[in-house]
Fold:
Amino acid sequence: MPSSEKERRAKRRSRDPSPSRGQQGGCWDWSCPEMRRRLEELYFREQDYIRAGSEDSRQFWAFFGRLQRFQTLKAKGEPAVWAPPARADPSAAPGLAGLPREYDPCYRINLSVLSGDVEGLARGRRGGPRQGPGVPAEQRSQFRAALLHYLDFAQKQSFAKLAKLQRERAALPIAQYRDRLLRAVAQNQVVVVAGDTGCGKSTQVPQYLLAAGYSHVACTQPRRIACISLAKRVGFESLHQYGAEVGYQIRFESTRSPATKIVFLTEGLLLRQVQREPALPGYQVLIADEVHERHLHSDFLLGVLRRLLPARPDLKLVLMSATINIRLFAGYFGGAPVVQVPGRLFPITVVYQPIPQEEALAASGKPERLDPRPYLRVLQAIDHKYPPEERGDLLVFLSGVAEISAVLEVAQAYATHTQRWVVLPLHSTLSIAEQDKVFDMPPPGVRKCIVSTNIAETSVTIDGVRFVLDSGKVKELSYDPQAKLQRLQEFWISRASAEQRKGRAGRTGPGVCYRLYAESDYDAFAPYPVPEIQRVALDALVLQMKSMGLGDPRTFPFLEPPPQSSLETAVRYLREQGALDRAESLTPIGSLLAQLPVDVVIGKMLVLGALFGLAEPVLTMAAALSVQSPFLRPTRTNPDCATARRPLESPHGDPLTLLNTFNEWVQVKSERAGSSRKWCRLRGLEEHRLYEAANLRHQFQVLLRDHGLLEPVQGPRDSYARQSRHRERRELHRLRQRHEETGGRTRKVLRLQEGEAGSSSDEGASGTGPSGVDIQDVKFKLRHNVDELQAASGTALSSHQFALLKLVLCRGLYPQLAVPDQYNSCRKDSDQIFHTKNKQGIVLHPTCVFASSPELLQATEEKAEPGRSRGSQEGLSSRHQLLAFVSLLETNKPYLVNCLRAPALQALLLFSRALDTSADCTRLVADSWLELCVPDSGAALRLLSTALQLRAAWEGLLNRQLEGRRGEPGHRPDPREVATLRQGLLEFLQQKVQYSLRRLTALEKQNCYVGPQTVAAAPGLPGLFQGAEMTPDEEKGGYRVAEFLTYNCLASETDLYSDCLRSFWTCPHCALYMPFTPMERMSHESSCRPRPQEAPLEEAAESSAKATALQRPYHCDACERDFLFTSTEILRHRKQHQ
Amino acid sequence: MDSHKEAQPKGDFECQLCGLTAPYSYYGQKPPNTHSVVLLEESYVMKDPFIPDKDKFLILGSQCSLCNRRVCVGTECSLFYSKRFCLPCVNENLREFPLEIRQDLEKRKSHSKSHPSKKADART
Structure:
């Protein structure tokens, strides 16, 4: 309250006698609830300005209490005259003549409360039979006077807020540039606004444009959270005059409506809109904010927009950036004009405090552990130099979580000792509640020390920071296109980042920035961080470019082009994944994947799962794998938590553990509403990520439905269910609205021991409104049909479904496979190592289920068998396991993240892109790196030919499904064929064959193939893998039998001619006995299928269908028998008799 | 947040002294949905943007009863003493006002000297 206001009120009190001293009515007690209720009944009725029981009425009574106390204090000794003096008739005299002579504060109030009906009511109710006593006239008039003062006070309060808001807006540095900016936008298609932190560009520029008459403004942000907070801020600053006209749109939430004039949205989302409507007809002005951060999407968006501008001459583009590398942006858009705005930062003193050489040397002995001493010294220096009354917190920038815990440990010990600090960690793997603590206030005389990753550099802004301590280091993901590996490495930061970190100390007042490096180091830093596009995998980007029809990504005019090798890798990867064909055009599955906002492998799972009716579990897994892991890293090993998690763990792998977790969570939510938060806490789960997964799952579901891959949703069956659902939703809406009105989280005061383990025991730390409602739960129930979700997550999978589910996942993840090291069985649990095709010696992520139970991966059961015989006999088993993984992450070691185990032989036969065989097919090489030896040649041939059929059938059905998704029922896959395939796959998985599995050595890889042969040397073998044409392979040698299968191309020292050697063999089906080469035998077998009556129904249909296509009945006159032969087989058969 | 229809802005109110500008949705003495509350002067009114309740109103300003200038209700631009007076008019006719008001103005004057005009140029 402005002090003048206080004075005025004080004066008013000096005249106004205390209302409590009105003695008429005898025992009138203002604080008695009954008396208050009587007044409320008169004045705070349903139709009145203030309603009984509302927040407003509570505030009034609080005000009334203050007024009374004040007046009692001031009015001592003054005559008790309460009734306001007669008001001067405003129409009595013009000008000054009518001013009341006798001063009364009531004359300064410009509103009044009509009370004619109240007077009547008050009189009338005295006679009422059921009603209690009324309110004496004197008290009524006292109450009315207080009410007027209260209304006047509320007006002044709100008006002061309004004036303050406008003052602050006008005082922003950008305000001076408003007209210049608007002129530039009017005269140019593209304008660059360069301004540093605090200049107000993000909040003001959209408002200026709106006020200048532009509408349909989109403002992109790199972060979702910024979209929400900016929309709120701009809505507030523009006094909600635009109401629903200011909105935001992020992945799962939108406040956008047809009335929206300005929308804040993420870059990714705008790109999706371009994908749908390339000319963006819905927008008049696009503002791209924070372009200097150089995120992948932001860079790409600029490229797309540059292309779009000539086609949309009416479209305005405003780029907003910090004053970093402005020329790059202006130049990219043909020399666009730049409006440069100074930032608003207080002066910051920089203290260079490089780590002394001897300390650095001592620490380098253990490079994995950060030496916390230099950090502690800064805390001590602050305590020494600045008195505790001078507020101001410390923000420490470190590179990673391990470094944070190292510093946290000593800083907390120091804090406990001095009682002058509260030390809090901040990084993205913390729970939301823990992250929120950094916004709380320390008690007086105590400083906050926030130990953070670079998340606090841009994403999170904490007020009250006066000191910054910068390690100068950052851990960034870099991408190794060769190994397709993400590497988290520590780097020196750039000068731009160093300045950004420093700036965090000067937001609210002058500050100090301690740098743990020398000024010469600073000068040697790179000027800017490496743009994301140059250090990440570009698969998704290339896919999106393809679906936008942007042509060859290699020639796209990027702001700064990514490395050519990254683009090549991405194109190759997409081809491998079947999203692009040989001509690099989108395949049907590719165009669908391009619309799914997820990793290609996860998108593939969704499509594959839909085919086998496994959509529900696959949706859940795809969603859970696409958000950050809900499993919190326990700060210290918490045995209770681990025990509680155990039942959720799946022995098959992490994706299934996630599935169990999500399903269990949904059950908990639907059965015991509100208790899911506790359930999560006991298991060390971050519930927020499960909510995110639920949202993502819903989005996938909608997308799959839109593409005809899922059945449309059924509404509630009967009107009763509909009605009850409707009622429930209305109640939920009401709860949410109340939560929004009472405001979200309020800042709390931290306790001294906060941040140490065990002290964070307060319940409902996040999201619980004052009413005790779990607002996240309310939103969840509003957004999802919980019954439907519960039904989907509650049905247990049969063992068959489960096996298929794993197969679907594995196919989606292929070729991301790792093989256990052959000596793993002799290693400690934690030392298990794995190899991928391109990377050796990878370990399991500690959260992985196989890290704690490695025996799941070992083919142990045949260990007893004599393995000493040597050579191919060694390591025989029917249970070799491969790991399919979602990602590969390298920090201090390379880790496999999110693993699933799969039977090796079956997975490789079904999924390998290249399968090469020896002449007798007992030796197989998958994708040129894994060798399978199946000593039983008959079994090998059988498996191989089954795999061929299954693959062909699967591929065919999948293509039909993707083509048929336009809704033409004729193109839908035949359910019978699906059933046949499902049956075939299950039988294939159950095959038990002894084989060995190993990686080829580098030397073996080199000499793997026989190489090109002269065609004459090869026997003119009939093309016979189900009639496929066999062509000599010009690279590997041997023959290409199918796109993925090359027969007899493996070099082996034993016999080069084994493929030509025939041996006698009896066909188990037709009892034909004659000499066959392995090849001939395989082809005979594949054509001589078991008779229909022996086979399961569907299979029979399938094989007879094949028979008609390729074969015909043949009666041999020589041996007087009937055969089912293809034409070449007939020739061969005849030859026998010659 | 469903019903925004009632608060259609009628135009912009601009204080002729300090330049404060805000959209108003009603001009008069009986803003809509205010029930028993009436205003004692013809005022420019908007929905109170700081309170979620959509029936709460905020008085922005009105006309000076002497010079007819449009002024905001801010204490540096005008005062209400049974009628609205802009501060320039009050200062011209200071002697017509009761002592309490004169003292009040005096205090504010000395106060605002130490705090340079807060409501500086809203537009440049």
